[in-house]
Amino acid sequence: MMTAGQTGFCPPMGWNSWNTFTWDINEDLIRQVADVFVAEGYRDAGYEYIVIDDCWSLKERDAKGNLVADPEKFPGGMKALADYIHDKGLKFGMYSCAGTHTCAGYPGSFEHEFEDARQFAEWGVDYLKYDYCYKPRTMDGELLYRRMALALRNSGRDILFSACNWGEDNVHGWIRSAGAHMYRSTGDIQDNWESIKKIALSQIDKMSYTGSFCHNDMDMLVVGMHGGSNNDFIGKIGGCTDAEYRTHFALWCMMGSPLMIGCDVREADEATKAVLLNPDLIRISQDPESRGSYVVNPEPQWLGNSGCFVLVRVLSDGELAIGFFNLGEGRREIPLQFWDLGITYGCGAALSLYDCFGQKELGSFRERFAATVESHDCLILRGRLQYDG
Ligand code: GLA
Predict the structure, then answer these.
(1) Does the pLDDT at position 5 exceed 80?
(2) Secondary element (H or E) of residue 145
(3) Is the pLDDT of residue 301 over 60?
(4) Is the confidence at residue 3, as pLDDT, over 80?
């Protein structure tokens, strides 16, 4: 029987090196991230995978055709690093590509799928992110993802398969059957509000393509980066406000995306930690049934194109996660009529509401709740039905 805790059952949670460090990675950094995960409560909050992204290998395979970890960046080798991570009660992730080369020009796994999967298994890898650069034009993406999924399956190790084809080739239509546990559905995220908003809005009508065993990956989190990337594209300056990062995290939780932290957790400030470690938001993300959320009464007349909407996710214990989002400009009142949830006055129920970021009970409401939400901010509630008598 499948249970929570089984690979890919809930949206995976962890950290990935790419957003902040891109090419500038090494084993000390990875060890330090693992240390921080334990010391500062990330592991206990549910974050488990520590993933090395692109740029970890030499530019050439060895004479036998094996991938070789860059000895300057990883002098102790990948097996020792995996052991270190496992000893901390965490899991180890690595990266390769369905094409001949990775996006940064290192060897990819095209036509090396089975030997590479064996190699990853020998090193103790628990998670493989699999990119889409330099894929021969005539090769079918579905076939290549299926081939690597089979190779991992035959590697002798339980390895989570994270597909990364940026939403191309209608991936949402075939990736579940190809065997991925999560799949990137958009281009690369950037550390700015427009990027967060664009990704979230592009996936709102794709909620039927995410769920247990295969989760829609809206890309790694930029929460807490504050312009800290070493890469111009991702964002070296500015970043987002705390409210924008909070809204980003809430959207990813409500919409069932994996939660892969992209900031330098060694330097994370208190506001960042309060968002990433919020137990109520993580509980919504990790709800065992991984249901998609739905938009309540999309674009009602009085909200127009304001960028305001309400998302609802029905949780497995019967409670409702309700997110009031204001992605537009200026403070707005966002009303929710309970009949739109199927909770009419006639059914005799009230909703007892709890504010997940404010961590306080708001009281019991009938028929309607209206949230006043600042620009680029959100209010995330849990609602419990209460019946008279
Ligand atoms: C692609 C992926 C990113 C990252 C880089 C590495 O752009 O979408 O997430 O893995 O490649 O080169």
Answers:
(1) no
(2) helix 141-153
(3) no
(4) no
Average pLDDT over residues 305-326: 94
| CA of residue 288 to ligand 1 center, whole Å | 29
In this structure, which long-range contacts are made by residues 199-206, counting pairs with CB atoms below 8 Å and at least 24 apart in sequence?
A: 200/248, 200/251, 200/255, 200/327, 201/327, 202/167, 203/255, 204/255, 204/295, 204/309, 204/311, 206/172
For the segment 24-51, the average pLDDT, to the nearest whole number, is 98
Ligand 1 center from residue 131 Cα (angstroms): 7
Indicate if 188 belongs to the active site: yes
Atom 12 of ligand 1: nearest residue by CA position: 103
What angle is formed at CA 283 by the lines to CA 357 and CA 83, rounded to 5 degrees?
115
* Catalytic status, residue 35: no
8: pLDDT strictly greater than 80: yes
CB-based pocket (< 6 A), ligand 1? 18, 53-54, 102-104, 131, 164, 166, 188
Domains in the chain: boundaries:
13-285, 294-387
Partners of 385 in the beta sheet? 351
Rounded to whole angstroms, what are the CA distances from 358 to 55, 281, 304? Answer: 40, 11, 28
What's the CA gap between 240 and 332, in Å, rounded?
20
What residue owns the CA closest to ligand 1's atom 8? Answer: 188
pLDDT tens string 143-200 = 999 999 999 999 999 999 999 999 999 999 999 999 999 999 999 999 999 999 999 9
Quick check: 211 and 263 in contact, CB under 8 A? no
**Confidence label for 297 from pLDDT (cuts 50, 70 and 90):** confident
- pLDDT tens-place string over residues 207-227: 999 999 999 999 999 999 999
Nearest to 29 by CA among 58, 53, 45: 53
pTM of the full structure = 0.97
One CATH from 3.30.1380.10, 1.20.1730.10, 1.10.287.3240, 2.60.40.1180 for 294-387: 2.60.40.1180
Architecture of domain 13-285: Alpha-Beta Barrel (3.20)
Task: Give the residue from 281, 245, 257 showing the smallest Cα distance to 356.
Answer: 281
Ligand 1, atom 6: nearest CA belongs to which residue? 54
- Report the chain's C-alpha Rg in angstroms: 21
